[in-house]
UniProtKB/TrEMBL annotation:
This is DEAD/DEAH box helicase. One of its GO terms (molecular function) is ATP binding. Gene3D superfamilies: P-loop containing nucleotide triphosphate hydrolases. Keywords: ATP-binding, Helicase, Hydrolase, Nucleotide-binding. Pfam families: DEAD (PF00270), Helicase_C (PF00271). It comes from Saccharibacillus brassicae. It comes from the Bacteria. The keyword Coiled coil does not apply. Residues 255-410 form the Helicase C-terminal domain. Residues 35-214 form the Helicase ATP-binding domain.
Length: 733
DNA sequence: GACCTGCTGCGGCATG
């Protein structure tokens, strides 16, 4: 290495750290990022694989500059999407800066007040924070902002893909602009991500509100992949003659999972919390039967952070095997070390998710990334068995093909008129001002980058509506202040987050928190959580706590979900795979025979199966299959309980034009079937299209209906049509 | 029978 090499330009304590860690050289991404940071004044987007050293690539050169010219306030602000990720990064950075005399602070809901007070007293070094805590700072402590961030040099946004495309991302952009104005600083931005489809879109997102160019650092990855798909065809659960065959099929499915994981550091991804729970229950049952050790963990959004950290530590550290079944909680960048097996039960719903999950395997450089798909066709009341299409298998293949062969990942779209967020930031800005003239407020809010498409006239309409609905109030001398309703909404701590949530009860076994539930069973009833069974002993409604003890037997899990979003392109790919008849190469030999048998039976029985396909466009597609039961449930809800609109959000199609496939599942006939519409289904879908709830965000409900219409139209949705349809039916009221 | 994220201020009490 010549003396010009970026390594020798890094601060001495960083060179020390690199030696101490036993690294022989900087990774390519770190070399490139160092050049960008040290030689330009531009923003930077680092897009490279998981565990490629992105965090170090951002911090090595940024800290070097900070070391050369110490900052008189916080010098680097790191924004992360998860508390767990911040805690993980906090430990890694602390190791790096042990000898550097640059402090690392973290700030989120679990950080004690005493620590936050320390940062306020000695604003310096690196501060790691969540968007919600940053909102709290901007809103409630505006006078502390100049001292905290007056000399801020860098803002690092981790896992950019987790923010962009959602209101939470626009919230971050808005906060960055507010922070710069309040503190009088103009920091450079560094975005980190492993999963990105369209770099140009992300670059312009990252620069939002500034005129500084964004440099892309994205070294070619080229990892080798090893993918395998195992498909289990389950016999019909309702056919009594088949009950023994079904038992055997389930047994071989579970034994397959057990045999391929229990001696390794293994991660089993599932698509639902329920499957994660039931799988680990099964694994524990098999372990007990075989008198082998219990090495199993469950990791999802309703598991307490303590149990999650236990699972993470077991995978990362220690000798011997550890197996965790997880939902997307283990997709993001928390360090898990190098895993020996990554399994996926069923197929992922998106290519982005597939790539993230793939990134969990083969983390050492040069290693092969491996993913073992295990599909089992689920029971379907509507289907006439034994001939069924392997929909899950098809989706697994479609996702693999799209990513591996076409390098395609779902593009992220940003709302053109984020109305709910406009309300949110208006209230937040007004609270930080204390009071403001209407014009002053408009200048402060409407110039924030996410709101560039709103007109002054539209903002006036919003403010007038908010005055009329008591969210705002006008003082005698014409100043705007937060009104009674506004106080109720923005005065509560839940205001900091811009996404919807449900109230949860914590579940305790003695003093140990196991996790949380939203549906609380009465005392005496059982449920499963964290891969074990529990019996409710006592419910403390006031403190939102449920006390439980261990139980035996068999019970359902508590989570009820209904459908989700899947990109049109994945559905089209599934259709193409069927049409091209290219399914066979992906199937294990016996599975191909099973499928052949299924197809023959399909022809003989004239089986009907349904598939809902969007007619065109690249907008989001909703459910791969919708049963009449779901429609009945929807109808009932629509008629009786419109207040439940928001909870229906995920069941409702997001694009107004659909066509229906109804009929045989034979591939040759599919072309014909796509144009043969079923009237009943069409009616039901029409009804869903007329339903306006799916587009409402947490704060949209506080904004004027006329503006909501304009905002939807901007994103290509015709609310007027939807409204008319509603009035014309029984569901209008 | 899809998934996930986040969170304040203060009263009451014990302790040094």
């Amino acid at each position: 290495m010549s003396a010009e090499h970026p390594f020798y330009r890094l601060a001495p304590f960083i060179q020390e750290y690199i030696y101490r860690s036993g690294w022989e050289e900087l990774r390519e991404v770190q070399v490139e990022a160092s050049r960008v940071v040290l030689d330009t004044n531009h923003h930077m987007l680092i897009a490279s694989g998981t565990a490629s050293g992105k965090t170090e690539a951002a911090f090595f050169p940024a800290l070097t500059l900070l070391d050369q010219e110490p900052s008189s306030s916080v010098g680097i602000l790191y924004i992360g999407p998860l508390k767990a990720l911040i805690n993980d990064q906090f430990q890694r950075l602390e190791g790096l800066m042990r000898d550097a005399h640059i402090p690392v602070w973290h700030w989120h809901g679990d950080v004690p007040q005493s620590e936050k007070t320390k940062v306020m007293r000695h604003p310096s070094g690196v501060l790691q924070i969540t968007p919600e805590s940053l909102e709290g700072l901007l809103m409630n402590r505006p006078n502390a902002i100049p001292a905290l961030f007056g000399d801020l040099r860098f803002i690092v946004i981790d896992e950019v893909h987790a923010f962009m495309g959602a209101d939470r991302g626009s919230q971050v952009l808005s906060q960055l602009e507010r922070l710069s104005r309040m503190a009088g600083c103009s920091p450079r931005r560094i975005g980190l991500s492993a999963t990105l489809g369209d770099y140009e879109a992300v670059k312009s997102w990252l620069a939002g509100g500034t005129r500084i160019p964004v440099e892309l650092v994205s070294p070619p990855g080229g990892r080798k992949l090893r993918l395998s798909i195992e498909n289990f065809a389950m016999p019909d659960a309702r056919d009594e003659r088949q009950s023994e065959a079904l038992e055997n099929a389930k047994k071989s499915y579970n034994n397959f999972i057990y045999d391929h994981t229990h001696l390794k550091k293994a991660l089993i991804f599932t698509n639902s919390r329920t499957v994660a729970e039931t799988t680990i229950l099964e694994m524990r049952r098999i372990a007990a039967l075989r008198q082998q050790p219990d090495v199993f963990h469950v990791h999802h959004g309703s598991i307490s952070s303590m149990l999650r950290e236990e699972a993470e530590a077991a995978l990362r550290e220690g000798y011997g095997p550890a197996v965790a079944a997880a939902t997307l909680t283990l997709e993001l960048g928390i360090d898990l070390g190098s895993l020996e097996r990554v399994m996926q039960l069923g197929a992922p719903y998106s290519c982005a998710s597939f790539v993230q999950r793939l990134g969990r395997s083969g983390r050492r450089e040069g290693a092969v990334a491996e993913m073992m798909f295990v599909c089992a066709e689920e029971d379907d009341e509507e289907a006439q068995l034994p001939a069924r299409m392997p929909w899950t298998l098809l989706r697994a293949i479609a996702v693999c093909e799209l990513y591996v062969k076409e390098k395609w990942i779902e593009p992220q779209t940003v709302r053109k008129l984020p109305l709910g967020l406009l309300y949110h930031q208006t209230m937040s800005v007004l609270r930080s001002f204390g009071e403001a003239e209407a014009g002053e407020l408009a200048r402060a809010v409407l110039t924030l980058p996410p709101f560039a498409n709103f007109t002054t006239e539209q903002y006036r309409e919003l403010l007038e509506y908010l005055l009329a609905t008591d969210h705002l109030e006008q003082t005698e001398d014409g100043m705007l202040i937060v009104g009674l309703m506004g106080e109720r909404v923005s005065g509560h701590y839940r205001f900091y987050a811009v996404f919807q949530d449900e109230e949860e009860h914590s579940v305790y076994d003695g003093s140990e928190e196991i996790g949380s539930i939203t549906t609380v069973p009465p005392a005496g009833y059982c449920f499963s959580l964290a891969g074990r069974l529990w019996k409710v002993e006592e419910v403390d409604s006031r403190h939102k706590a449920v006390y439980v003890k261990h139980a035996k037997g068999k019970v359902d899990t508590l989570w009820l979900g209904a459908g989700g979003d899947m990109h049109t392109r994945i559905v089209r790919k599934m259709r193409d795979i069927l049409r091209e008849n290219t399914l066979y190469p992906y199937l294990a030999p016996n599975a191909a025979a099973r499928l052949e048998r299924a197809r023959r039976l399909s022809r003989e029985t004239g089986l009907t199966e349904r598939l809902v396909l969007p007619a065109g466009g690249d907008s989001m597609f909703v459910m791969p299959w919708i049963g009449s039961r779901e429609f009945r449930t929807l109808e009932r809800l629509l008629k009786n309980n419109l207040s439940q609109q928001l909870s229906l959000r995920s069941i409702v199609p997001m694009e107004p034009h659909y066509m229906v496939v109804a009929g045989r599942t034979d591939a040759d006939e599919l072309q014909h079937l796509i144009v043969s519409e079923s009237e009943r289904m069409e009616d039901s879908i029409q009804m869903l299209d007329e339903f306006e709830a799916p587009y409402l965000g947490k704060y949209d409900e506080f904004t004027p209906p006329g503006l909501i219409r304009a905002a939807f139209a901007a994103d290509g949705l015709d609310l007027e049509g939807l409204r008319r349809g509603l009035r014309g039916s029984d569901y209008g009221a």
